[in-house]
Design brief:
Blueprint: E1 2-8, E2 17-24, H1 45-57, E3 62-68, H2 70-76, H3 78-94, E4 101-105, E5 120-123, H4 126-129, H5 131-154, H6 160-163, H7 169-178
Parallel strand pairs: 1-4, 4-5
Antiparallel strand pairs: 1-2, 2-3
Length: about 190
């Protein structure tokens, strides 16, 4: 059984980092074909929500989500947060499923140590190549979307619904004018 791992919010200046691991047998993939599972960036907000809801309710799919908030990223650093998140996911899912390998979307494992005898591989553009990574990508981005809705409710003037915490020109201008919220990563030097 493959466990695909991906994250959302890694390059954001606002909001949390969400790292998700998803494990299921390849034999399940044909039964999910109606969901059009692919890289979360190629799906609309509504499509991600619909697919995430089905993935989360499927008893044959196991997942684990790690959330690293802005304050922790500022205090510990992004690489450490990614390493810890990967290790937590691998430990959690290896204890629940017969995982044969972990595949992380990207080119670095951040020196994380997988459980004994289970390999951890990286794969660039894995979210377009491996079904389980695409599913992890969708769940991570769905969690990020939900958080952005919550932040927007608290701080509507920052328009988190349009930029999802990424450092767009408009978002940078809003931070410059209004200052940081508790959800912003102050260690990401913008000025």
């Amino acid at each position: 059984m493959i466990c695909g791992i991906d994250e959302a919010g890694r390059g954001c200046v606002g909001g949390s980092l969400f790292i998700c691991g998803v494990a299921y047998l390849d034999e399940l993939i044909p039964t999910l074909s109606h969901l059009k599972i692919k890289d979360s960036k190629k799906l609309s907000h509504t499509q991600r929500e619909q697919i995430a809801t089905e993935l989360l309710s499927n008893p044959h799919i196991t997942h684990h989500m790690v959330k690293k908030e802005a304050k922790e990223i500022d205090e510990r650093g992004l690489s450490i947060c990614l390493k810890e998140g990967l290790e937590e996911i691998m430990e959690n899912l290896a204890s629940k499923c017969p995982i044969s390998r972990f595949i992380y979307d990207g080119n670095s494992t951040f020196k994380s140590q997988p459980p004994l005898f289970i390999p951890l591989q990286t794969l660039i553009k894995g979210d377009t190549l491996i079904h389980q990574i695409s599913s992890a990508s969708i769940l991570a981005k769905y969690a990020k979307d939900l958080e952005c809705q919550e932040i927007h409710t608290l701080y509507p003037q920052y328009d988190f619904l349009s930029h999802s915490g990424y450092c767009t020109a408009k978002h940078k201008e809003l931070i410059s004018t209004l200052g940081y919220t508790p959800f912003h990563r102050k260690s990401f030097k913008l000025f």
